[in-house]
Structures are given as structure tokens and as C-alpha cells.
């Protein structure tokens, strides 16, 4: 079995919900769902945490057969010095009679033979461990590269595998440079079995209740279709499966909006408020991760236009009160390899005369077409109370007099 199957089985064996596992791993439930259905892969840190949480090893979690039976080379001393033992044996050998020498010589040769065999076994174990480690790394790299290249999202709203939506994928392929909210998407439906005369189509539902019907064609056992979708007004989508005797209709959602830019590793933060007269001081503390790495946000611009700017922003009562431009760096850190950029997030503070009724803080990325991506920390706390936030994409003018249009997730 592969990683996603192993993770789902381990969770169900422990009778844990996706929400509970997400809370333990400090990620969202949607992230756990994507791990389990194969649309996303945790980074090496999270893989280590998962293996420790389920009391298993990395090889078993990743589904690499036979690795648990390989002996560990660390159990045999690698730097043992046999010189003193050899010198002592030679001194004893000189003091013995000829017959005794012959008997000792025989045992000596036997000892040398046994020692040689042990050294050969040690060398073989080291080679096997090296090959096994290389295989593990290559397997993990292959899984991550496959996910990165496909940019595929698997929509799964429940564990009932009889539901057609369980086998639905949607993938954002490209966007319209003049109207970036218009995107071309690929829809696919790959059931384990189907009747010869099965007909499948997608319905994209818009806010004005209009329906965009997208017929699908069968190619190599998978039903496929491509269509242009308006992200500003698209609400959800349904899959229609007619097997010749009945038609089943299942809602499968429309997660294309979050394929524009993938952001991961956004750090947790806390903030405090102090007042002096009519002045208010807000201090935000950004936390290092549990491994001591500096707080960073990692992101990928594989689908959208090139990300050109990054900034930390605080809004009080709907108005931007603080903005700090961040330095973007190419990601060569070894973490979050699927993301090609990162920005370090420093702690910050500011003074204002506004006593906040509502406060929002987020990372804002701006691409080459002027589209802005707002990502809120999933863990931003005032004392022990978490801020209630929504991430958003802010598009430039839509050509109808609007200065900006915000799509919330």
C-alpha cells in the first residue's frame, strides 16, 4: 500500500477522526483529507511526526516493503581496534610447545576466518542499509515530484467510497491573463468500474443559479473534460453519472481557487494590546517551529503569474493599519520542496489611535498581473482565543467599475 492508504488505515485502526489528527499535527482537517486521498504529501517534518504519533517507522508509513527486516549496521562496532588482541595472541603462541602451537595455530586460523566473515557481513549490512536509504529517499522524492507536477486536487467530502465524488479530481491548468478570474480547468472521474454505456457530465453552479454543463469523454478508463470557469461567481459543482438504468448526482465541490498559489508552513503567532490614553500598542510575536527553524511562509507560483511582492498586513476595523514588505528568497532550504519561494516572517509591533473592534493579520502576495493573495495564519491567538479569519484572493478591476473583487474560501 502507498502512504495515503497507510495513513488512512492507521487513523481508522486508532478510531481517530480527521479533525483529531489535524489538531494533533497542527494542520487543517482539509490537509489531513488531502494526505489520505493522495492529493498532497506532508513534508519530512510532518512525516516524522506522523510516524512517531502512530508508533511506527518511516518505511512502514510510506509503504516500502521489506525495509523493516534489514538489520541495522549500528549494532556491530565499526571502529573496533583488533591490534592489542593480535599482539597478545602472538606472545602466547611463541611460548607454547610445537604441538600446542599447531593446536593454537588451527584455532588462530579459525578465529581469523570468523573475523573475516564478520567483516564481510558488516560490509554487506552497510551496503544494504545504504541502498535501502537511497531507495527510501528516491521513493519519497518521486511521490513529491508527482504531486508537484500534477497540481491535482482530489475532492472527497465523505468516507463513503460508493459516492461518485470520491473518485473526482479537478485541476487548474491555466488562467486568462486579461481576466485572471477566468481559468481553464480539467475535470476527471475515475471510478473502479462502470457500465459500457455510462455517460458522465459535470454541472458548475454559479451565484445567479445558472448551470454550466460539461460533458465528459472516456479516455483509457477515465472520464475527462476541460472547461473555462469563472471563479468570481462559481459556487460549487455536481457530477452526473448515468449507467443506462439510473442517474446519480453527487456534489463534489470546486476547490480550484486554492490552486492559484500554494502556501504552506505559515507560522503561528500571538498578539497583545496595551493602551495609554488614546494610544494603543499592538505587538505580534511570531513563533519558531518546534524544530527551532526561523518562522517562514513557503509558497509556489506554478500556476499563477510570478509572485513579485510579499508583505505582512494588519487591518483594524477593515482599514490597513500596518504593512511590512518582506524579502522573497528562492527556496533551497531543504524544507517544503514543492514550494519555490519563501519569506521569513519577523515579529512586529506598531502604535495607533484605533481601538480595534475587529482585527485581521495576513500574508499578502502580489503577482505579475496584480492579483493579490491573502493568507491568514491558522493559529493567531489573542491570549488563548483564536482569531476568526478567512483567506482571500483579491482580483484587479473586473472591467465593470469594481476596483477589486474578493473571493473568500
- Radius of gyration, whole Å: 30 Å
Count helical runs: 7
Give a short account of the largest sheet.
6 strands, antiparallel
Uncertain parts: 67-76, 146-161, 398-409
Helix share of residues?
25-40%
Mean pLDDT across the residues is 75
What does this protein structure show overall?
- The protein is of the alpha+beta class.
- It has seven helices and 24 strands.
- The chain has helices at about 5-15, 20-25, 30-35, 45-55, 60, 85-95, 100-150, and strands at about 150-155, 170-175, 180-190, 200-205, 210-215, 215-220, 220-230, 235-240, 245-250, 260-265, 270-275, 280-285, 295-300, 305-315, 320-325, 330, 340-345, 350, 360-365, 370-375, 380, 385, 390-395, 405-409.
- The strands form five sheets. Strands 15-14-19-20-23-24 form a six-stranded antiparallel β-sheet, with no helix packed on it.
- A hairpin with a 4-residue loop joins strand 8 (about 235-240) and strand 9.
- The radius of gyration is 30 Å and the shape is flat.
- The relative contact order is 0.09.
- Residues about 65-75, about 145-160 and about 400-409 have low confidence and may be disordered.
Amino acid at each position: 500500500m502507498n502512504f495515503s492508504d497507510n495513513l488512512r488505515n492507521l487513523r481508522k485502526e486508532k478510531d481517530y477522526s480527521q479533525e483529531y489528527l489535524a489538531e494533533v499535527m497542527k494542520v487543517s482537517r482539509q490537509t489531513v483529507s488531502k494526505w489520505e486521498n493522495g492529493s498532497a504529501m506532508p513534508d519530512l517534518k510532518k512525516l516524522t511526526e506522523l510516524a512517531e504519533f502512530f508508533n511506527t517507522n518511516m518505511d512502514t508509513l510510506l509503504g516500502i516493503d521489506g525495509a523493516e527486516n534489514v538489520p541495522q549496521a549500528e549494532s556491530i562496532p565499526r571502529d573496533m581496534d583488533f591490534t592489542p588482541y593480535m599482539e597478545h595472541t602472538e606472545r602466547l603462541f611463541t611460548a607454547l610447545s610445537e604441538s600446542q602451537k599447531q593446536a593454537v595455530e588451527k584455532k588462530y586460523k579459525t578465529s581469523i576466518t570468523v573475523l573475516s566473515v564478520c567483516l564481510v557481513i558488516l560490509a554487506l549490512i552497510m551496503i544494504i542499509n545504504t541502498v535501502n536509504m537511497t531507495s527510501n529517499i528516491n521513493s519519497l522524492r518521486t511521490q513529491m515530484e508527482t504531486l508537484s507536477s500534477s497540481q491535482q486536487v482530489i475532492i472527497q467530502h465523505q468516507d463513503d467510497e460508493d459516492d461518485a465524488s470520491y473518485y473526482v479530481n479537478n485541476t487548474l491548468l491555466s488562467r486568462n491573463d486579461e481576466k485572471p478570474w477566468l481559468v481553464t480547468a480539467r475535470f476527471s472521474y475515475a471510478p473502479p468500474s462502470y457500465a459500457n454505456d455510462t455517460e458522465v457530465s459535470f454541472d458548475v453552479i454559479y451565484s445567479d443559479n445558472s448551470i454550466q454543463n460539461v460533458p465528459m469523454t472516456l479516455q483509457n478508463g477515465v472520464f475527462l473534460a476541460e472547461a473555462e470557469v469563472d471563479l468570481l461567481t462559481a459556487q460549487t459543482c455536481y457530477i452526473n453519472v448515468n449507467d443506462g438504468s439510473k442517474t446519480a448526482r453527487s456534489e463534489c465541490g470546486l476547490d480550484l481557487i486554492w490552486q492559484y498559489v500554494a502556501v504552506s508552513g505559515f507560522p503561528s503567532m500571538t498578539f497583545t494590546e496595551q493602551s495609554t490614553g488614546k494610544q494603543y500598542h499592538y505587538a505580534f510575536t511570531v513563533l519558531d517551529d518546534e524544530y527551532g527553524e526561523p518562522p517562514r511562509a513557503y509558497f509556489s507560483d506554478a500556476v499563477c503569474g510570478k509572485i513579485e511582492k510579499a508583505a505582512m498586513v494588519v487591518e483594524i476595523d477593515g482599514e490597513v493599519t500596518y504593512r511590512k514588505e518582506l524579502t522573497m528568497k528562492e527556496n533551497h532550504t531543504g524544507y517544503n520542496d514543492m514550494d519555490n519561494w519563501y519569506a521569513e516572517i519577523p515579529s512586529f509591533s506598531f502604535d495607533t489611535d484605533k481601538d480595534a473592534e475587529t482585527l485581521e493579520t495576513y500574508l499578502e502576495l502580489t503577482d505579475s498581473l496584480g492579483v493579490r493573495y491573502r493568507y491568514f495564519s491558522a493559529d493567531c491567538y489573542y491570549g488563548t482565543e483564536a482569531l476568526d479569519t478567512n483567506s482571500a484572493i483579491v482580483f484587479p478591476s473586473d472591467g465593470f467599475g469594481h476596483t477589486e473583487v474578493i473571493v473568500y474560501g
